[in-house]
Amino acid sequence: MIRAVSPKGSVALDIIRSLPKFDLNTILSDPPKLHEDKGQLISHWRIDNTTCFELNDRLKAGLKTLETGAGLSTIIFAANGCQHTCVTPVKAQVDRIQDYCRSANIDTSKVEFVIAKSSDIIHQLPRSEFDLILIDGCHNFPSIFVDFYYAAKLLKVGGTLIIDDMNIYTCQLAARFVQSDPGWNVELKTTRVAFAIKISDTIDKEWSHQQFVVRRSSVNKLARAWSFCRNVSYGFRSRLGLTRTQWRHRLPWRKPCLDRRPNHP
Question: Cα–Cα 20 to 30 A to 164, which of 214, 226, 233, 261?
Answer without folding.
Answer: 214
